[in-house]
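Entry for the shared binder. Reason: the reviewer on the internal report wants the predicted structure included alongside the sequence.
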Amino acid sequence: MSSSGKTIFFAGMIAVFGVSGISAAADDDMLRVYMDHARVLKLDRPVSKVIVGNAKVADATVADAKTIVLTGRSFGTTNLVLLDADGNAILDERILVSIDEGNTVRVYRQTERSVLSCTPNCEQHAQQATATTSP
């Protein structure tokens, strides 16, 4: 293989694997919280404003000037922006709200799927309504 061929080959490999590596790293940078669970965020400086992109997915409560409690409300992703008194961003992160799969069992019946929470007895997991009604 000529040197220009090797250069093109390696550039192609970097383009393919570099992009997928960045995507995987971006997923790791998200704040993760389970639905109907809270997560405490301790801050280095006082927060003045709390902005949640979609309040149906997650909720943020100010416990004190340097403590935010993030609660997962329904499945999905949104973002959280925390600003200080000068309007500077303290935090600007994506949030992923998912189910705690540690004690769950999925049951598939043809095209239907059920999720059971088994702690200690198995019960149907509360499903979020995803259908919207049109006027």
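Summary line for the report: The longest strand covers residues 89-98.
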